[in-house]
């Protein structure tokens, strides 16, 4: 999962990012309000840690823009503005949590973990289901509900499937995938994605799922449910 920290105190942001990376999150930092909003709306992040006092655009305005866009990204406000009026403004504006400075990094990490365990309506009881495919979020395995066949999958395969299943029936571009799974400054080989997708497709076929990842030339990829009988 991917976290964006919008915080103009870079040293503080770096400390938070380093700790979150130990939790296996992919983390990016943005110190400018307008640039932070642009990145928050690009569809690749699961959660934003958002300061209030920022250059060019304050956190409350960023939060409003995020919620007006109908994005369901989780937002934790992180700020020295501890007055009850500020907290109410943040929470009533759509923030999922509000942490005041000074704070303990471990508390913030716990709050991030809590928010992301709640993330997305498609996740129920530590599973995501699309068609007859079930992804187990605890042990990184896939199961075909109809055949009851299961397989364990690798870390990148799991991250890719989780991303696709949470965005099923939507075309996701290669750039979005690279940024989401490998980070904005990734240096992976251009064919790595196709290799991982090939692994996933073979495993889905082995367990008998009615789900596939379809390439859309020039646009990207889409995970969809298909009826094999009607296509033959």
In short:
The protein is an alpha/beta fold and 232 residues long. The protein has helices at residues 10-22, 33-40, 59-68, 84-92, 105-117, 155-166, 174-182, 192-207, 228-231, and strands spanning 2-6, 26-30, 47-50, 74-79, 97-100, 123-124, 127-130, 133-136, 141-144, 150-152, 211-216, 220-225. The protein has 2 domains: 2-117, Response regulator (Rossmann fold, 3-Layer(aba) Sandwich); 123-231, Arc Repressor Mutant, subunit A (Orthogonal Bundle).
In terms of topology, how is this protein built?
Layout: E1 2-6, H1 10-22, E2 26-30, H2 33-40, E3 47-50, H3 59-68, E4 74-79, H4 84-92, E5 97-100, H5 105-117, E6 123-124, E7 127-130, E8 133-136, E9 141-144, E10 150-152, H6 155-166, H7 174-182, H8 192-207, E11 211-216, E12 220-225, H9 228-231
Parallel strand pairs: 1-2, 1-3, 3-4, 4-5
Antiparallel strand pairs: 6-7, 7-8, 8-9, 9-10, 11-12
